[in-house]
């Protein structure tokens, strides 16, 4: 595997250089938020960030996406595919938990039974550059409980690790190697590698928040009906913030928007927290209250995904924990379930 | 601020014991450092978690409406003579009681269905303001004493003055003590500074149309249409919001700029004479959209045109809910 060393202050320059030729999404400071945004002249990368407010999943699975267009003509409907304008793209400076989320999303959008071309095209076009967490950014991070690590190559094409004086750049995949030319010529030595290993161990130990994510699976298997489910949701606002911020939540809605005889079919994010999510045309709603909706959120992440893909659909980023306006803490819920 | 937790818990226990209420909506300590979160207390033992302090943000009237509506729906199929009444207790500061008044004026439930435990309020900490003054460093622990927040952050210890991080709506609050209550806990809080209530709006009004439009566009671009603002608002209680109606569809559900602007404009106009400036919508917004600028402008217009402040008394009916010959109508001819 190709490994190089780059100077600490060179990172911004590298991202900007890439942005001259490719579409580069990187963390950008916008007022009080750090958001993944395509770099432009007015959008400078900001790598001294903890983690981005929004999850980078939007690069592959945007909030709103046109699936196709149609026009009503006297001779009938004429359909046209939405051409994919996304050329070569780089996702620069993703945290390892978020890179892990791409692996989880791949299991769903790119599987044997079903291939989502909209997602796959963007995914194949994109090179993921991970900025490892030499120091875990938040006390709420719990990646180690859900098969992740603060310094990890999961889902990454290139991994950058802060080893003190420099960044160690590891080119994990051929896709990553193609971008090697941007990273200078300094080859990494064995010292750098040892240092990285130390840092990785230290970072892993620094994760203090732990949840029994694997332990709850057999309990969930047997407790679809349990009085516990009535104790979580009382204060839930059904706002969907948790799912919109979550890197692994991927439920969507499809709707048509028509103007006169022209229309577009769009796919947009939806949320199991919204009452409308399961409401049927008849007016009947099988998930009648927030209780059933919260059970679905827990079940989907910690049981159904495990049943379907043998993976937990949570990467421990803590975004839902920090963004929930009424402090519903998934860590506590999993903890409580493990004690049922 | 005076610690009223012990008194609050005593009162809550007594109310539950005497069956004066079925459940009490209050606040408890959150799982994240320096937070408080809404909670529901229906047994005496649970009452021991109740707190009321400068970290309590959410307007609890929203939950009163939710609980009563759910209860009424559950009674629909019960014979009228067998229907049970449910009494909701609520820990309420000034703005919460204003929202309760709005519910009562809009005949959402009867005065006998809610038991108001009034608490004095000196304002709450604005989390976004606090995060800003800590340069977004994560809060690991902290205390509030004597108007000072002593905070342990990932970037070291910091002391912040409460007055520097108090929510902007609290600074100018006119009704920080409960307007109506069944029992009061603690002594009334000192008055805030309502004289400057509209100073920011006055400044904003002086800007050109282009500048105002640019600001509106910039703010609305941040919105991700999660609907948290609507969900947190006690005045947003329609069983089906216009956003979710599909026949006809009033606004698209996607990220289209205009749809977002229309959604926000429509919600804002549904707040005429109904927004109590509790700040709940602003505090829950994950993206930090400046909704207050517009809500406050609408409030100012209501005061100037109709002399009405939302939920300020049981007698003063909301301007859109009453007819008065003195109502201004010149705008009809001269927009
Ligand atoms: S469930 Fe919460 S902690 Fe887990 S991946 Fe989603 S936002 Fe992150
Ligand atoms: S963010 Fe919190 S309040 Fe909003 S839907 Fe999720 S759990 Fe409920
Ligand atoms: S619009 Fe916002 S500030 Fe006004 S009452 Fe609703 S939640 Fe409170
Ligand atoms: S809470 Fe904020 S982001 Fe969500 S819909 Fe309201 S304004 Fe938009």
Word description of this protein:
The complex is a heterodimer of chains A (340) and B (335). Chain A has 340 residues and is an alpha/beta fold. Chain A folds into two domains: 2-206, no CATH class; 217-337, no CATH class. Chain A is 30% helix and 22% strand. Chain A has helices spanning 11-21, 96-109, 117-125, 174-177, 190-206, 216-222, 241-245, 290-309, 319-323, 330-338; strands at residues 2-7, 23-30, 33-38, 64-73, 76-81, 89-94, 126-131, 158-162, 166-171, 252-259, 262-269. In chain A, strands 1-9-8-7-6-2-3 form a seven-stranded mixed beta sheet, with helices on both faces. Chain A has a four-stranded antiparallel beta sheet with strand order 5-4-11-10, with no helix packed on it. The longest helix of chain A is centred in the C-terminal third of the chain and has 20 residues, at 290-309. Chain A is globular, with a radius of gyration of 22 Å. Chain A starts with a strand and ends with a helix. Chain B contains 13 helices and eight strands. Chain B has helices at 5-17, 61-75, 94-105, 127-133, 162-165, 168-171, 199-205, 209-222, 228-232, 257-269, 280-284, 292-306, 330-333; strands at residues 23-29, 36-41, 88-92, 114-118, 139-145, 148-153, 156-161, 183-184. Chain B starts with a helix and ends with a helix. The radius of gyration of chain B is 21 Å and the shape is globular. Helix content of chain B is 35%, strand content 13%. In chain B, helix 2 packs parallel to helix 3. The chains are: A alpha/beta (340), B alpha/beta (335). The A-B interface holds A 30-33, 50, 53-54, 62-64, 137-140, 234-235, 237-241, 244-245, 253, 255, 257, 266, 268, 271, 274, 276, 289, 321-323, 325-327, 329, 331-332 and B 30-32, 35, 37-40, 58, 62-63, 70, 128, 131-132, 136, 138, 140, 154, 222, 224-228, 231-232, 244, 252-256, 283-284, 286-288. The site of one iron/sulfur cluster has 14 residues of chain B, from helix 11.
């Amino acid at each position: 595997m190709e490994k190089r060393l780059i100077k600490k202050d060179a990172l911004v320059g590298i991202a900007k250089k890439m942005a001259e030729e490719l579409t580069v999404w990187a963390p950008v400071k916008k007022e009080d938020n750090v958001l993944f945004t395509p770099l432009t002249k007015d959008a400078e990368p900001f790598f001294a960030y903890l983690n981005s407010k929004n999850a980078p999943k939007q690069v592959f699975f945007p909030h709103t996406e046109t699936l196709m267009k149609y026009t009503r003509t006297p001779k009938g409907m004429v359909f046209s595919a939405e051409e994919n304008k996304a050329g070569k793209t780089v996702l620069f400076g993703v945290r390892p938990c978020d890179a892990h989320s791409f692996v989880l999303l791949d299991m769903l959008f790119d599987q044997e039974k079903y291939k989502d071309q909209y997602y796959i095209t963007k995914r194949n076009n994109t090179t993921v550059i991970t900025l490892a967490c030499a120091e875990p950014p938040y006390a709420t991070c719990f990646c180690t409980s859900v098969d992740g690590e603060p310094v990890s190559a999961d889902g990454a094409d290139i991994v950058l690790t802060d080893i003190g004086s420099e960044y160690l750049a590891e080119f994990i995949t051929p896709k990553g190697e193609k971008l090697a030319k941007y990273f200078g010529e300094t080859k990494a030595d064995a010292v750098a590698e040892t240092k990285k290993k130390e840092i990785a161990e230290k970072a892993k130990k620094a994760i203090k928040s732990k949840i029994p994510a694997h332990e709850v699976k057999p309990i969930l298997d047997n407790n679809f009906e349990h009085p516990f489910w009535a104790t979580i949701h009382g204060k839930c606002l059904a706002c969907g913030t948790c799912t919109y911020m979550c890197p692994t939540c991927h439920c969507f809605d499809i709707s048509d928007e028509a103007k006169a005889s022209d229309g577009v079919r769009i796919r947009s994010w939806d949320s199991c927290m919204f009452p409308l999510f399961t409401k049927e045309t008849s007016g009947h709603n099988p998930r009648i209250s927030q209780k059933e909706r919260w059970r679905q959120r827990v079940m989907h992440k910690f049981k159904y995904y495990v049943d379907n893909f043998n993976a937990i659909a949570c990467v421990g980023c803590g975004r839902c924990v920090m963004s929930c306006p009424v402090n519903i803490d998934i860590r506590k819920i999993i903890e409580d379930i493990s004690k049922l | 601020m005076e610690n009223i937790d012990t008194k609050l818990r005593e009162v809550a226990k007594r109310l539950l014991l005497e069956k004066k209420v079925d459940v009490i909506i209050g606040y408890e300590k959150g799982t994240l450092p320096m937070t408080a979160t809404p909670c529901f207390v229906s047994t005496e033992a649970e009452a021991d978690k109740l707190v009321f302090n400068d970290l309590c943000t959410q307007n609890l009237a929203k939950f009163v409406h939710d609980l009563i509506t759910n209860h009424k729906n559950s009674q629909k199929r019960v014979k009228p003579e067998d229907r049970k009444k449910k009494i909701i207790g609520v820990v309420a500061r000034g703005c919460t009681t204003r929202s309760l008044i709005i519910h009562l004026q809009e005949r959402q439930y009867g005065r006998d269905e809610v038991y108001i435990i009034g608490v004095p309020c000196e304002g709450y900490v604005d989390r976004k303001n606090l995060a800003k003054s800590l340069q977004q460093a994560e809060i690991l622990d902290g205390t509030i004493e004597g108007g000072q927040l002593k905070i342990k952050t990932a970037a070291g210890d910091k002391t912040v003055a409460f007055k520097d991080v108090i929510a902007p709506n609290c600074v100018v609050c006119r009704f920080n003590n409960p307007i109506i209550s069944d029992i009061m806990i603690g002594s009334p809080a000192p008055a805030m500074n309502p004289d400057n209530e509209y100073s920011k709006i006055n400044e904003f009004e002086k800007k050109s149309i282009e500048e105002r439009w640019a600001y509106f566009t910039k703010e609305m671009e941040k919105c991700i249409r999660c609907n948290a603002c609507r969900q947190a608002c006690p005045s947003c209680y329609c069983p089906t919001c216009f956003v979710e109606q599909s026949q006809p569809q009033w606004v698209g559900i996607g990220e289209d700029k205009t749809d977002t602007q229309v959604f926000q404009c429509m919600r804002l106009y549904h707040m005429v004479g109904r927004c109590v400036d509790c700040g709940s919508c602003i505090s829950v917004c994950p993206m930090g959209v400046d909704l207050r600028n517009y809500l406050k402008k609408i409030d100012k217009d209501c005061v100037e045109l109709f002399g009405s402040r939302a939920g300020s008394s049981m007698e003063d009916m909301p301007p859109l809910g009453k007819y008065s010959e003195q109502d201004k109508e010149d705008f009809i001819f001269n927009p």
